[in-house]
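Thread amino acids onto this structure.
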């Protein structure tokens, strides 16, 4: 869904600017989110996940995106892999 089609609510969590989104720090990953109120940036908020929680989130997102064609600028893990004989997997 494109951002301008979503209903505007008072508070929102959005993706942070590129470069701040995800980083690994030892045995956890930090996903930085932008907090906005009434469309105005308020602050950045870290969501800290263990490696297991990160794997669960990744698997859940892959499951939710199943069947959706990847956009042109999608990361490699979303690109279709073509195997000999026509079998496809992601």
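Threaded sequence (90 positions):
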């Amino acid at each position: 869904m494109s951002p301008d089609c979503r209903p505007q609510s008072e508070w929102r969590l959005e993706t942070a600017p590129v470069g701040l989104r995800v980083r690994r720090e030892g045995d956890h990953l930090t996903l930085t989110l932008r907090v906005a109120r009434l469309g105005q940036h308020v602050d950045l908020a870290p969501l800290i996940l263990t490696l297991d929680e990160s794997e669960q989130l990744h698997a859940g997102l892959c499951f939710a995106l199943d069947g959706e064609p990847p956009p042109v600028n999608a990361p490699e893990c979303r690109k279709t892999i073509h195997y000999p004989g026509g079998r496809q997997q992601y």
